[in-house]
Amino acid sequence: SNLAEIQIKLYNLNFGINEKIEYMGWVNEGVLNNNHPWQSYCARFMIIRGRDVLLFETPPMSITEWLDCGVVYKLYESMLRLVKDAENVDQRQNCFLLQTSNGVSRYFSMETKQGLLDVQCAWHRSICTSMMHIKSRTFYVLFGNNQQPSNLILDWDNGFTLYDNWTNSNVWTYKFSELRGSSDDHISRLKLHFNDNGCIETKELVCQDLQSLLFCVHAFLTAKVVSVDPSYLNTEGIQQL
User: Fold this and answer.
1) Which UniProt keywords apply (predicted)?
2) Could you count the other beta carbons within 10 Å of the beta carbon of residue 169?
3) Cα–Cα distance between 219 and 86 in angstroms, integer?
4) Cα(23)–Cα(21) distance, integer angstroms
5) Looking at the domain that runs over 136-232, which CATH code has it been given?
6) Please, where in the chain does CATH 2.30.29.30 lie?
């Protein structure tokens, strides 16, 4: 609504470019009832700001209430997925899932299709801004048959780089655009498939924080797509970067 847009602009006067609010409004969260085979819905006040998504029971009215938010998820450790109509759990439409790397999955419904698209676009803009600001994330991994202790570095400019901790040198580097796919065992083993001069090169890694790594890769890839999409770049927040 226009009122919400005005509130966001007023709040954003106090925030830096990397902390700006992209979305602020009510969403309906599906809550499972133990005694019934259907869901009830509870209103939540959602804010997508900077690199965080925050959920409140009532809108925050002061800085103290902002800081006391009990439900905060990092965007690069989370994923937003629109639910297809055939996958809706009940008659409610315009649904999406918020999933996190530590196994949290929350189901939401919006009143309108436009409301759903507003949340999705705000999420994408925040992901782009966040990952451009974060620049890089590093994960400890074991590489190859020798289980070589290494760091897998995800970097906005360089893509994927494997750094050997014993030799203190880079083993290989691939751009994000060269990733052709991945597969994993849902526990710790990951295969990354890269395009290497027309051939597919597979790199096998072991990472004890596999889900966080996968969610972070997804965040970087999403941000890269958004950063070159004119439909997202025509927004005030991205233009100021």
Assistant:
1) Cytoplasm
2) 9
3) 26
4) 6
5) 2.30.29.30
6) 1-128, 136-232
Which stretches does DSSP call E strand in 88-221? Answer: 95-100, 105-109, 136-143, 148-155, 159-164, 169-174, 179-184, 189-196, 199-206
User: Quick one: 180 exposed, middle or buried, by C-beta within 10 A (0-12, 13-18, 19+)?
Assistant: middle
Residues found in the chain? 241
Contact 28, 5 (CB under 8 A): no
Residue 157: both structure tokens together: 């400019």
In order along its 241 residues, the chain shows pLDDT tens digits of 567 788 888 888 878 778 889 999 999 999 876 666 567 899 999 999 999 999 999 998 887 888 889 999 999 999 999 999 888 888 899 999 999 999 999 999 999 999 999 999 999 999 999 999 999 999 999 998 889 999 999 999 999 999 999 999 999 999 999 999 999 999 999 999 999 989 999 999 999 999 999 999 999 999 999 998 756 645 443 333 3
Enumerate the β-bridge partners of residue 54.
47, 72
Cβ within 8 Å of residue 198, ≥6 positions away: none
Query: Beta partners for 29?
Result: 42, 108
DSSP state of 50: T
Q: Domain spanning 1-128: which CATH class is it, in words? A: mainly beta
